[in-house]
Amino acid sequence: MEEMKKDFYNTGYTNQLKIVAEHYGIFNDLFGQHAFFNPRVPLNITFDFDEEFVSPVNCGNLLKPAECTGTPKVTYEAAEDSWWSLVLTNPDGHLTDNTAEYLHWFVGNIPGGDVEKGDVLCDYLQPFPCRGTGWHRYVFTLYKQESKIDFSAEKREMPCHSLRQRTFQTTEFYRTYEKDITPAGLAFFQADWDETVTDVYHNTLGMKEPVFEFDWPPLHISVQKTVPHKKPFNLYLDRYRDSKEIATEILMARLKNRSPFEDEPPRRKLPNIIPWMGEERNLPSWKKTQIRKERLGMGRYRHLYENKPGP
């Protein structure tokens, strides 16, 4: 397996990774329009998931923030007398500036391939994508240095819990040091919100957690027809009723068989096992379907068994 991996790195790795990065807009969002580079140095990046397993970073694979709580392990092949810098940024998550990124990790002046001996200019902070904003890209960029560089202007306080200090722009960084550094390696993963993000905002960053919700456009309802063709008429008519009227109807049905002085009656384990008796056998199909949904608590009828408002 290792031989196949090395063979891939020596043949189509650079071109395929470049194609994937372009597809995900990595070069455009980090270095500007029409900019790109060929990632010549393969990066081997893993997060410790537990004592036995690790979560690898490849070319845009999906990880959860809970898998990325600890500092990643990064290895690559390099000459012992060479110098490198490694930067991890999120181009999708800045809360106030769409053109800026958040800096999650920055190690400069790495001797050869030993990342642990480099200068930590910004300590690692796990991904914290806001709830409701979908998948964020987290990009590792490896730079080859011409020599050892004075990165004192890039140094952050340790630990860095300020989003203002973690604000970063790859274009500005590269413009400042372009004579001394060359992008040589690339890897990225994607992450969306989970429960650990709330803890990061409250206990690490010391701020309220922002939550985003999509503002759905109003539902389009066509003009009601006297004789709708091939439409289930009960559902069709309900579409033009006031949702509050439907919610009231469900609530009244719920309260009809309940007493404020008694516990909730237990639900049947197999509600639809009850056979159709007497006149029920002659009910139309739409009415039988409605009764089945009521018994199962499906759709709007879930409120027959849940003490929640709404249609």
Set down the secondary structure blueprint.
Layout: H1 2-10, H2 13-23, H3 26-31, E1 44-48, E2 54-57, E3 59-63, E4 73-75, E5 83-90, E6 101-111, E7 119-122, E8 136-145, E9 167-168, H4 170-177, E10 181-191, H5 195-204, H6 233-238, H7 243-256, H8 285-296
Parallel strand pairs: 3-10
Antiparallel strand pairs: 1-2, 1-4, 5-6, 5-8, 6-7, 6-9, 8-10
Written overview of the protein:
With 311 residues, this protein is an alpha+beta fold. It is built from eight helices and ten strands. β1 and β2 form a beta hairpin. The relative contact order is 0.12.
* Strand segment count: 10
Radius of gyration: 29 Å
Give the overall shape: elongated
In whole angstroms, the N-to-C terminal distance is 56 Å
Care to give the gist of this entry?
The protein has 311 residues and is α+β, with helices and mostly antiparallel strands. It contains eight helices and ten strands. Helix content is 24%, strand content 20%.
Features:
10 strands; 3-stranded antiparallel sheet; 7-stranded mixed sheet; alpha+beta
